[in-house]
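Possible regression after last week's pipeline update?

I re-ran a chain I had predicted before the update to compare outputs. Posting the input and the new output here so someone can diff against the archived version. Not blocking, just want to make sure nothing changed silently.
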Amino acid sequence: MPRFSNLLSSAAALSLCATALAANIVVKVGGPGVLKFDPEFVNANVNDVITFQFQQKNHTVTQSSLAEPCSPLANGFDSGFIPVADSVTDNFRNASLLVSDTDPTWVYCRQANHCQQGMVFAVNPGDKFDQFKSTATGGNATDTSSTTGAATAIITVTATVTVSGSVATTTYATTAPASTSGSSSSSSGTDHKVIVGADGKLTYEPSNITASVGDTITFEFQAKNHTVTASSFAQPCRALSLTSSSTGFDSGFMAVAAGATSFPTYTIQVNDTKPIWAYCRQAGHCGQGMVFSANAPATGNTFDAFKQKAAEINGTGSTGATSNTDGASGSNIGPGIMLTTLAAVLGALL
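New output (post-update):
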């Protein structure tokens, strides 16, 4: 299986591959009004490097399977969400994939319903790419709803990124999938605002809410670099996608520059009244109590019990590889992935 290198800088990795006469294959991810990988598939040899170049909007490179194109593969690679402002035209952020064998590798973007609109990619697909894409667009995907987490993926994203010292903000909407329970947001639904990291604290404020079917929950990231990631009561500091068959939601890391006045947001929709459990997957934050719930029971599996369980394991079960902790240009995100950030993010990120 091809794997993302997390040991070498991208420059060193490319240098070693060049020495071995390996190829560097550039694949564009997204762009203004573009929901696709370009090219959509490549044929690569062992030791070739595939460089995913994240262009405008907010996408991921996530490994899946031929049978389930829009569901993450267990223990597969995932870039996390990479927001890029519309005003950015160069110095794009990259993720480099090292090809270690010639078996097919299947990939999709897990933003809202991008996969269902055909945003998929493959390495060495043989004659199966059309089948892979057809399955993705044919309504057989399960990525964007969660029968356990009771929330869809992103509805609206406002991403603030810093490129070459200039802060730019982009806001755009995506179409959330229909609820598995048949419920959907309505004009009468309530939007619950939750502040993430207010005043530099490791908190969601409020950290426990009650929400009705059709309500939305908007997380506003105000400082440092945090996520809101679906988990479970049993494993507070582990992503739901890694502990169950449900994909769960994940905002990806949302870096906020010191002194920022415009903040990125992430919105989920409530589809039923089952408890929603979430945490920040930045290193150590979950164990320090940075957890959230909606519709937690008043007795038994309460929010306080959830938070206590996170503290007891001290976040040691957290699946969140550390995002940039010192403003450097390299960041490991997810199993075996190396993300090369070409623009430094202002301010301390922890």
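Follow-up from reviewer: compared with the archived run. Confidence is low (pLDDT under 50) at residues 5-19, 139-187, 317-350. Marking as no regression found.
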